[in-house]
Amino acid sequence: MGQQDGFLKFDRELPDSRPPEKRIEDFKEIYQPFPEVKTKKQAARCMDCGIPFCHSGCPLGNIIPEFNDAVYHENWEEAAKILYSTNNFPEFTGRICPAPCEASCVLGINKPPVAIEHIEKTIAEKAYELGYIKPNPPQVRTDKKVAVIGSGPAGLAAADQLNKAGHWVTVFERESRIGGLLRYGIPDFKLEKRFVERRISIMDEEGIRFKVNAEVGKNINPDMLKDDFDAIVICTGSTVPRDLPIPGRELKGIHFAMDFLTMQNKEVAGDKVENKISAEGKNVVVIGGGDTGSDCIGTSHRQKASSVLQLELMPKPHLKRDDSDPWPLWPMTLRTSSSHEEGGERKWGVLTKEFKGNEKGELSHIKLVDIEWVNQGGRQSMQEIQGTERDVPCELALLAIGFSHPENHLLENLGVEKTQTGLVGADQYKTNVENIFTAGDARRGQSLVVWAISEGREAAREVDQYLMGRTELPAKDSSFFDIAELEK
Ligand SMILES: Cc1cc2nc3c(=O)[nH]c(=O)nc-3n(C[C@H](O)[C@H](O)[C@H](O)COP(=O)(O)OP(=O)(O)OC[C@H]3O[C@@H](n4cnc5c(N)ncnc54)[C@H](O)[C@@H]3O)c2cc1C
Ligand code: SF4
């Protein structure tokens, strides 16, 4: 433990972000530099708890008190060694993770929790700066070949672990660039893509082959994969978006959030984008109150929308934890993202009833009504509030109401069974087909980057065990209870 009274002496402090009116002029990350001495003070706040609940809260089982201690002692090499032992990509999670570890930090019971995510990002960036992260190809190669389908965080983590185990790994990605939602979903103002590219180039030098514009089931024959590879890992994400089939859905100007975000991310990357969906000069309504919706808001501000309104069906969450979500569970409290700080309006308890258009078939308004949630026989059901129906102007509506499951055609081609909800069916990451495995959103449904990395690592262990009859790839520490299990 770095400093016994650190948690009493120092307040939680995070880097300042650039002023909203300045940062919406570009797509660069929003945080300003933070002096190292301040990060050391943040690490000093860690109490090195007897039972470190932060460790249980982290889906990767990151060994948080130990890396906090190493940071306090400015032993960056040791901190990096500890962090990278459980997390392949802390340079991503340190930027965009909602930090369930912080929600379960013991200090968070009566004070702001330890700034774990910021410390993680600092360790990762220091590790690159000091040259600790460099290509380290395996010393010994096996004669086994593994195909990973999909290059999101689950596929990348699986590929990284399997390559470390000495297997020959090829990642097939249907897009022209690697990264999955890290690349095309999450905007640059949250995660600049140079950090994704930096990691991919290391993995490339370590011997992983990346094949882009390679869609398995379209221009890559699944039978070829079955013939040429000893094992296959399906990491194709949960990409089928939920729709809103209400009157007027066919009007021009209604788009899925991912179509909108992908185009902007491509443009920032320098790709040519035709028929770009643009928010410029438009009244934008983002339907869906989650993170994807919030990314649409930040992107709309940067594209110079004339107004931005975000709608959520559920009631406004409470500001603080209550009896329904006590520590150390994930708090279902009101979240205000950096995009919300940049402007726009948010409304809760609102139902979108109809899209209305002009004579050219273009969206011009959305009909809304306020709703209340009532308990009917133990179930919450929504009721419209009489007299609240109104039309709001809207020329661009973005549907950010989640994703239901992965696309079907690949699973059918590979003979892989689905669950009732359409996810890839698997027992411990193994599908019904002997040498086919799965990880990430394709298996667990839409989730988080940290869970995708965790799943990719666990699936890699299963693959290695299958190929070699044993595995030395590290397992997630199971000596602590899983807070995510408590939440079910
Ligand atoms: C807009 C948005 C913002 C998000 N923001 C955050 C955030 O801030 N923090 C966070 O923790 N999580 C966030 N998430 C969730 C997170 O991005 C996902 O949980 C995570 O990326 C899932 O990883 P994955 O590898 O399973 O799938 P994905 O990242 O979806 O990657 C799947 C890949 O498979 C490829 N693919 C699909 N089919 C084929 C095929 N047949 N052949 C070849 N390739 C194929 C796809 O092109 C894609 O590249 C966000 C999600 C969205 C949509
Ligand atoms: S729970 Fe918080 S205070 Fe305790 S060890 Fe983890 S980070 Fe440190």
From TrEMBL:
<keyword id="KW-0479">Metal-binding</keyword>
<feature type="domain" description="FAD/NAD(P)-binding">
    <location>
        <begin position="144"/>
        <end position="456"/>
    </location>
</feature>
<protein>
    <submittedName>
        <fullName>Glutamate synthase subunit beta</fullName>
    </submittedName>
</protein>
<dbReference type="InterPro" id="IPR023753">
    <property type="entry name" value="FAD/NAD-binding_dom"/>
</dbReference>
<dbReference type="InterPro" id="IPR036188">
    <property type="entry name" value="FAD/NAD-bd_sf"/>
</dbReference>
<feature type="region of interest" description="Disordered">
    <location>
        <begin position="1"/>
        <end position="22"/>
    </location>
</feature>
<dbReference type="InterPro" id="IPR006005">
    <property type="entry name" value="Glut_synth_ssu1"/>
</dbReference>
<keyword id="KW-0314">Glutamate biosynthesis</keyword>
<dbReference type="GO" id="GO:0006537">
    <property type="term" value="P:glutamate biosynthetic process"/>
</dbReference>
<dbReference type="GO" id="GO:0016639">
    <property type="term" value="F:oxidoreductase activity, acting on the CH-NH2 group of donors, NAD or NADP as acceptor"/>
</dbReference>
<keyword id="KW-0028">Amino-acid biosynthesis</keyword>
<dbReference type="GO" id="GO:0051536">
    <property type="term" value="F:iron-sulfur cluster binding"/>
</dbReference>
<dbReference type="InterPro" id="IPR009051">
    <property type="entry name" value="Helical_ferredxn"/>
</dbReference>
<dbReference type="InterPro" id="IPR051394">
    <property type="entry name" value="Glutamate_Synthase"/>
</dbReference>
<feature type="compositionally biased region" description="Basic and acidic residues">
    <location>
        <begin position="8"/>
        <end position="22"/>
    </location>
</feature>
<comment type="pathway">
    <text>Amino-acid biosynthesis.</text>
</comment>
<keyword id="KW-0408">Iron</keyword>
<dbReference type="Pfam" id="PF14691">
    <property type="entry name" value="Fer4_20"/>
</dbReference>
<feature type="domain" description="Dihydroprymidine dehydrogenase">
    <location>
        <begin position="23"/>
        <end position="129"/>
    </location>
</feature>
<keyword id="KW-0560">Oxidoreductase</keyword>
<dbReference type="GO" id="GO:0046872">
    <property type="term" value="F:metal ion binding"/>
</dbReference>
<keyword id="KW-0411">Iron-sulfur</keyword>
<dbReference type="InterPro" id="IPR028261">
    <property type="entry name" value="DPD_II"/>
</dbReference>
<dbReference type="Pfam" id="PF07992">
    <property type="entry name" value="Pyr_redox_2"/>
</dbReference>
